[in-house]
Amino acid sequence: MVDPMRSIKTLAPKVVVDSGQLHWVPHFIDFSQWPTLCKDETRTIPSPQMAHYVAPLRGDAARGRVIAMDPWRGNCVTCHEIPGEEWPGTFGASLHHYKQRRHTDANLYQQIFDVRITAPRAVMPPFGPLGILSDQEIRDLVAYLQSLE
Amino acid sequence: MRILIIMLALFLLPAWADEPHKEYTSAEPFLPHVSGDDHLTGTYRYWKDPKNLDMRLAGSPDQSWKLNWKHLDYPFNKEMHAGHLALDRGLTLFNKLNRSGTFKNCLVMYRFNGPYETSLRGLRTHYPAFRTDLGRVVGLEEVIEHCAKLEGEVLQNGSYDNSAVSIYVASHSLGMPIKIDVSSGPLRESWRRGERLFHQKVGRNNMSCASCHVGRIGQSLRATVVTSPYGDVAHYPVYRDRFGITSLQVRFAQCSLDLGFNALKPGSQAYNDLEVFLTALTNGYPVSVPSERP
Q1: How confident is the model at residue B12 (pLDDT cuts 50, 70, 90)?
Q2: Which residue of A has its CA nearest to B216?
Q3: Does A84 lie in the same domain as A27?
Q4: Which of A121, B186, B198, B255 sits in a 20 to 30 Å window from A59, CA-based?
């Protein structure tokens, strides 16, 4: 299944018509570090973590919006309604007029960093402990959310 | 006293051992029958009779999820699609494999409660089953791979030809309700493991199947509307517009990549357990092949 040089870490199944073989093609993103459902899996998921937020926000709202739309970074729009986006998901709360909810920057930072601290049943991924978003990227997202009047 | 301490230590050792941190979505009570959907989404009454689906629901983009996409199945959907071509291919392959009659015998040689069957009729409704010759619980596609191997042919689990034969075999059970018994034996073990896997959070997004397919059915992820896990297996292997002929375990592999972890091979134990779990959730719903989904 995997090439002998081990340069390609993730493969996707491809069904080829009139063939008795299931073909596997390189997938465009490497998932090899994440735990799977395999019965012999030993890798772990990071347990819930408190974020260490230091006060001046220094985030850029424009950059935050780009991250919120990026399927491989924030990907917020897949679940949340975001102003100006025509076909958002409906899983999470709407982010319209988000500033009017008057969350503090520290709270918002914690929500994005690891939501499991405050809402253990939430579906939202813990972006910080999983290493999907860096500290600066979360700050940009907080700045973007605080800019939604 | 020292012996007592050592015994106590041995008893507590498993608790001290570094257990992998696994997270689970809170477990929901699932019934091994398709009518359990009433407790989950309450839409079972709209789609329980595939012959009388509501035309108005099918025509509305906001309401069509309430039919659990059964309006894409025959007899509501009478369109020709690539699933029919796979059915023809399956017939050709089956006749080629079954020249001496041993291929069919290999397929129908399974244990279930009832008289010994020699025809393909109803075969699909009893898989996954525990095969004594293989010594484990296997799905129909894996049995086809095994039996083709005995005939000297390679039909890998999940490949087009394998799914084509599977569609052909399933077409003998058209309209017959899925009927697997998960109340005892190896299938019960498999069902329990599958239920656990369904709730286990994994991958880059730290999500489980249940994260979306329990409390969020009918809501949308961008343009994708989340479906009920009940009643889904009846139309597999299915023709999907984007991926071609897709067996259930190839679908699991695609799900794995969507959740953000490396796909397992079709036929692995985790996928077999999930197949048993989902097939049990389809118990009582009639087989419908060939079918198509977007």
Answers
A1: very low
A2: A91
A3: no
A4: A121
Residue A70 sits in a domain whose CATH number is 1.10.760.10
Strand, coil or helix: what is A92?
A: coil
The range of the structural domain enclosing residue A11 comes to 1-32
Tokens of B127: 């898989």
Alpha helices in A12-134 (DSSP H): 61-69, 105-113
Does residue A48 form part of some domain? no
C-alpha B47/C-alpha B217 separation (Å) is 15
ipTM of the complex, rounded to two decimals:
0.89
CB B180 within 8 A of CB B279: yes
Q: Which two tokens stand for residue B221?
A: 């992820």
| Encoded tokens for B42 | 């309450």
| CA–CA dist B136, B130 (Å, integer) | 5
> Closest Cα partner for B205 from A129, A110, A126?
A126
Q: What is the pLDDT of residues B206-225, one digit of tens each?
A: 999 999 999 889 899 988 89
Could B262 and A36 be called an inter-chain contact, meaning their C-beta atoms sit closer than 8 Å? yes
CB contact under 8 A, B204 and A31: yes
Q: How is residue A29 written in tokens?
A: 């993103």
- Do A134 and A72 have their domain in common? yes
- A44: in domain: no
Based on the fold, state whether residues A27 and A65 are members of the same structural domain: no
Buried b (16+ CB within 10 A) or exposed e, A107-131: ebbbbbbbbbeeeeeebbbbbbbbe
Instruction: Determine whether A139 is exposed, middle or buried from the number of CB atoms within 10 Å of its CB (0-12, 13-18, 19+).
Output: buried
How many domains would you assign to chain A?
Answer: 2
Sketch out chain B's domains with CATH numbers: 35-76+180-293 (1.10.760.10), 82-173 (1.10.760.10)
Cβ-Cβ contacts under 8 Å, B25 against chain A: 121
Whether residues A12 and A71 fall in one domain = no
> Which of B:117-156 have CB within 8 Å of A?
148, 153-156
Give the pLDDT confidence score for residue A111 in this predicted structure: 92
- Share the mean pLDDT of chain A: 89
Q: Identify residue B286 by its one-letter amino acid code.
A: P
The beta strand positions in B3-140, using DSSP E, are 129-131, 136-138
CA distance B199 to B132: 29
pLDDT, one tens digit per residue, over A5-39 is: 667 789 999 999 999 999 999 998 899 989 999 98
Phi, psi of A26 (to 5 degrees): -60, 135
Asked, for residue A1, whether it belongs to a domain, the answer is yes
Find which of B160, B199, B269 to mutate to test the A interface (most A CBs within 10 Å of its CB).
B160
In a domain, A51, yes or no: no
